[in-house]
Amino acid sequence: MSSSSGGYYLPEPSHWPITGSIGMFLMLFGFASFLHGGSSLVMIAGAAVLIFMLFGWFGTVINESLSGKYNSQVDTSFRMGMGWFIFSEVMFFAAFFGVLFYARMWAIPWLGGSSNNAMTHELLWPAFDAVWPTNGPGDVGGEYQSMGAWGIPAINTLILLSSGVTLTWAHWGLKKEDRTQLILGLMLTVALGFLFLGLQAYEYYHAYHELNLKLTSGMYGSTFYMLTGFHGLHVTLGATMLFVILIRSMKGHFTEEHHFAFEAVAWYWHFVDVVWLILFVFVYWLV
Amino acid sequence: MSTATTHDDHHDHGAPSGLMRWVKTTNHKDIGTLYLWFAFIMLLIGGAMAMVIRAELFQPGMQVVDPQFFNTMTTMHGLIMVFGAIMPGMVGLANWQIPLMIGAPDMALPRMNNWSFWILPFAGTMLISTLFMEGGGPAFGWTFYAPLSTTFAPASTDFFIFAVHMLGFSSIMGAINIIATVLNMRAPGMTLMKMPLFVWTWFITAFLLIAVMPVLAGAVTMMLTDRNFGTSFFDAAGGGDPVLFQHVFWFFGHPEVYIMILPAFGVISEIIPTFARKKLFGYSSMVYATASIAFLSFIVYAHHMFTTGMPVAGELYFMYATIMIAVPTAVKVFNWTATMWKGSMTFEPPMLWAIAFVFLFTIGGFTGLMMGIAPVDMQYHDTYFIVAHFHYVLVTGALFAIIAAFYYWAPKWTGHMVNDRLAKIHFWWSVISVNVLFFPQHFIGLAGMPRRIPDYSLQFADWNMISSLGGFAFGLAQVFFLFVIIKTIRGGEPATSEVWEGAQGLEWTVASPAPYHTFATAPEVR
């Protein structure tokens, strides 16, 4: 027994947290300075420190895990940590969905004179027709076309749903110690993840250049890009994590019982998947 | 068993030494101490800003600072006290006490625990640095309503936004750690319904944190994009709505006030039974009341927005829902009182603070009920009555509970009893001055003095002067508190393990000061 806690592994003092704090501070302080005409160097340096920290910290965790320091109680702590972290992410998206629903249900109808807002409409924006999608009574961002649901977004839905299937198939492979199935499943999942991102990048390009649909296109543009953008960011993060899991699988990490890192990333991937489904319905489909 | 313990002791000595001990530590006691010191430093900085506010309001007319700087002071005072003093203070208590009270060797995720703390000094630095930037610091109030914080705010606002992101990140990690610790690290036999109430209240608070800090992050993110990237979330011209900001903010903001007070309820529920020498009256009803308050906190938030012109049905709903919170809160106050009923009470410093809490927090609760009634809130809204209300619940509520917790647990932390005379001087000095400070604000508020305005009309002059005098006295009392803290750390009558005659619970079974590593072998709880 190497630790002093009845088997529960207590890590040694670590410099990774403070490294992360410094990286985060530099990145965000640099970003804010950059927004006000400063150089982007501080921001980039901060991001580099943060990435260095992530490599170092997770590297330490992986080594500790491989050397068998984590008993089942530690494993439970990790599970709870990841589960509640995902819940916090759910609430982050909930804020933006809440904004979308509020705008569509109340703010925009009120601008159009519904409820007790007849005079607001009459005096401020008499010409405004309150229908979704809208860039507001000020026609912010100018003429635009909204994004249809049944082109790329529908294909992307299929891609993400398939990636959920391939990931589960990979998990089955891991559980019956079939490395080939595990690795192949993960490769497919990662590929589908990046395919999704590629198509989304194309969709954005199309929106900006052909539809004149921009981040600045009023409330529709704001909610569209904020929700799909943050989702895309999470897909990027998820696909990157899956890629790490793929590399680790190829190196022979994980056993059929002991593979929480795999499961954590799988949970995260399914979460990203579910967010997309809600997004597909309320951002693309029901417009 | 005993050989294993000896072997283990060989592996882990006491605390490492030097500055890097504090920077790299993964020990819950070290991290708790860091949190508490950070909170105290922020209390002094935020308090100094309050002194500027009270100095300007000492007399009508403009004397000390210009209006813009006055507004910066009210804004930063609020932000620093909420995010810098009260919240970290409570997390500091959680770090020190939860493992000790449930018989755990440490927090569940010790390295992440370090990060939760070490984000704070950087976020605090970023927040305070805005004061020295061109255009001045944020001056839109701690609630940073759009469009004051979007269209009309200085450049430093973007630094403020990222400081809030960092603070939120830290809080979420801290909360995850507390949930994992409580669910996964309890000693054998420590069932959920045997947990000390302080642990219960923090456990529930942690869920609130995880649920609402991400929403705050969303709010400031939308502010950031509205300010810099041309989105229209809070701009009616683009189909957005400034009032939408208030909805998002208060969805965070209302649970946030319970985040600050629920752990305080826990502290008081530990202290009163000890000094009444009786078991806490109605333990399970306390647990259920805490959970009810936490649940209700999500569905009442728009009572902060009665004057925004929301539909009458909304006003009525939020009014009734708000008044319902009085029920579980009253259960708590009743239980504290019933615990004292026929107890063998003694009045050591922690008990004095706890009793003051029960009285004064209840006053704050009652004024809250008044404001919860939508039609009369039209009169109270944005007046000093509101300021009086939330300072009664936050200063004589949350802060008093943290101070009570210090007097209660400091002997366990430092190994020294706190000098009784100095502690009592601190108590009476604080409790009298705080009432001189905040009670008159009820009067001037009801008479119509608006908050966040540096000048006022002549009829408010007398009570403002009295309030300021109380403020200076209360501020000075907390500098005296610093002296008491340092004196206690450096020496004093040695504390026994049990410390207080009537104290129950696992933390009183370990030596004072608590050894660097405790409960290496889990205790058995019956």
Characteristic terms for this protein:
heterodimer; A: 287 residues; mainly alpha; Helix Hairpins; 0% strand; B: 526 residues; globular
Structure description:
The complex is a heterodimer of chains A (287) and B (526). Chain A has 287 residues and is mainly α. Chain A has eight helices and no strands. The longest helix of chain A has 40 residues, at 72-111. Chain A is globular, with a radius of gyration of 23 Å. Chain B has a single domain, classed as Cytochrome C Oxidase, Chain A (Up-down Bundle). Chain B is built from 16 helices and no strands. Chain B has helices at residues 2-11, 19-24, 28-56, 67-102, 110-129, 157-184, 197-228, 242-276, 283-296, 312-324, 326-340, 349-372, 374-380, 384-414, 420-446, 461-490. The chains are: A mainly alpha (287), B mainly alpha (526). Chains A and B meet through helix 1, helix 3 and helix 7 of A and helix 1, helix 2, helix 5, helix 6 and helix 7 of B.
Short description:
In chain A, 73% of the residues lie in helices and 0% in strands. Chain A is mainly alpha-helical. Chain B is globular.
